[in-house]
Structures are given as structure tokens and as C-alpha cells.
Amino acid sequence: MSHDRLERLRQLNRTRFKRHTGIYPETFAEMELVLDQRERSKKKSGRPPALNASEQLLLTLEFWREYRTFAHLGHDWNIHETTVRRTVERVETALIQSGEFRLPGRKSLKQEENVFQIIAVDAAETPCERPTSQQRRWYSGKKKRHTLKTQVVIDVSTRMILCVATAFGSMHDLTLFRQSGVQIHPETALIGDAGYQGIRQHHGHSVTPHKATKKAPLTPEQRQQNRELASTRLRVEHVIRCLKIFRVLKDIYRHRGRRFSLRVNLIAAVCNRSVAGVA
Question: β-pairing, 189-191 with 160-168?
Fold first, then answer.
């Protein structure tokens, strides 16, 4: 089955291609190669798929980018919604198992060979449907709704995502950082927002904003330091914005939570390719 939407997509320029899919054509070609290798490695062909590898990839990207229901995507592609779900999960599994779309990981933060100068950490929240049980566990006091929390650690100089971690919405940012098992090289500076007060106990070379109290307002020097820190830390906010271009991480998450972590890791790895492409 051939769909002219794929051919029309290939005719778009680089900027419009990214606006439509969330990735650049070079990244799309790399992902196509992974799926083609998976198809060639199959020992049993079985029933011919309704979509070829390139169309399956485009369908998955549309799911990430637009986060429409499987029923709506199936109507557009003239396939059943169950086939859409299986296709999306099959493509995601193939990409993550290939090893080509993985983050450097927590181990890269403490390597002696490549010591990062400055890294930044921040957490973002994705709204989710109200769970049927343990509702308080997923309720975020900050967002006043049920959410899934994502922690992002980046290299400030390159804006590359180094590692991510996910948790339920009620967990504090600092608690998530401690439980994520992140260990940082002593010479690496770590910056975070006001939600990471006390992180210096975990990593001595850490910087967080000064906080004012009624009895001790901020001095002009402290205000200036906060502004400089915010200017540096702004890069992690830009990276989170790149992640949330994919509406599966921004809109109300409707699917199983155990699949959420896999999608966060995949999309983060894809965003790293986009950052490298811009650089």
C-alpha cells in the first residue's frame, strides 16, 4: 500500500520537514536505516505489513508529534487502530534496541576521560489521566493535577541531553535527583533551580539561586548572581521545550506509564540529533 503523503513529505525543505515531523531529514534517514536492517534480519517474513518501513516510521513520528488517537491515525492511514498501536510500539522497540538512539547515560557524568565543565538539571511535568488507584501518588501539588515527572540533565556547553529519569508527579525534584542514581565527577559544576536547594549535600560543586526571607532580603550582589545563574540555566529550559515539541510529552498522557519512560528516552536521543544538526 503506497501513501503519497510520504512522497510529499520528502519534497519539503529541511525547515518544513522538521516542522512536520519534529526531526531533520538526516535523522529520518538514520531511523529508516535501522528499520530496514530490522526487516532484513527477519528469519520469517510472515504476513506482509500494511505499511512499509518508511511509512511505519512516519506514522510513529506523527503519533509523537501530534499525539492524536490511534483511531484518528488509523483513519488517515486506512488501517485499523490496533494495527497503529502495534506499529508504533514495534518501531519504538526497534529503535531503542538498535543502540543508535540512546543517551550517553549516567555513567558518562563521572568518566575521567571526558569531564563536563558545567551541567544543568531540571524537571518537567506531563499531565496524565487520573489513575484508578494510588491517586495521591500521581498528584502534583505544583500543577494541581495528576502528572508524570521527567528529570533532564544536560551539558550546558553543547545542550546535549546526557540522561533522563521519570517518576510520579508527587515526587519532589530533589528526591527524584537522589533516587535517579546520578553520580557526577567532582570537578563538574552542577546548576539547578530553587527546587534543588540542598543538592550540595549530594554534590559539593553545586550552585542554586539565593533565596530571600522576610528577615534577610537579597543583597544586590546576590540578585546579580541569581540573574547570571538564570541566564546559564536557561539552556535546560530550551532543551525541555525541544522535548515538548512532541506533544506526546506535553498533552495529557493517555497510555500506560511504563511506556512513558521509553518514549522519553527515545525522544531525548532524537532531540540530541537535532541539536547536533543545528550545531
Answer: unpaired
Residue 14 burial class via C-beta count within 10 angstroms: exposed 0-12, middle 13-18, buried 19 and up = exposed
CA distance 151 to 193: 13
Condensed to tens digits (0 to 9), the pLDDT of residues 188-233 reads 999 999 989 989 998 989 999 999 888 889 999 999 999 999 999 9
One-letter amino acid identity for 164?
V
Residue ranges of the domains in the chain?
1-98, 118-277
62-80: burial string, b at 16+ Cβ within 10 Å, e else:
bbbbebbebeebbeebebe
CA distances from 207 to 53, 195, 226 (A): 47, 12, 10
Which sign does the torsion angle of CA 11, 12, 14, 20 carry? negative
Architecture of domain 118-277: 2-Layer Sandwich (3.30)
C-alpha cell recorded at residue 183: 553520580
